[in-house]
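Workshop exercise sheet. Pairs work together: one partner reads the sequence aloud, the other fills in the structure field after running the prediction. Swap roles for the next sheet.
Pair: D.N. / O.F.
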Amino acid sequence: MTRTISSAIAAAIAIAASGCSAEPVEVDCDATKVNITGTLISQVPTAPVDKDLDVQGTATDGNNLAIHRVLVAGVPATNMGFNFERWSVHLPFQVISSLARNEAGRAVVVVKAIDTCNREATISMFTLSVAQPMAARESR
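Structure field:
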């Protein structure tokens, strides 16, 4: 009985191994064909931000390539689904307060995704009003 089970397992392994292809898959990394899109799921706060912020969104690659990273203001997002179809990030207030400002004085948050070919695409951008640190308010 043990010999029959061992033979059956060996046969199954041989069949499974023969079906796998070791040939590499060609990936078209033409920089002009980048097709990564995304959306922001989280509501952008309208009041001045004075603490850490959690942000969620989505990302997809129209070329069916893997998305390797999503960065929000340079902070790596956590993959919450297959291929970053949903992602989440915790932005520390220190990062938010150090971001470049637009002409209205609001912090500009850029969301980027990077695919298999290391091509980068901006998939979202939003601005935040940033509260002044307590020390700056007290010195006035």
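Discussion prompt: The radius of gyration is 23 Å. What would you look at next?
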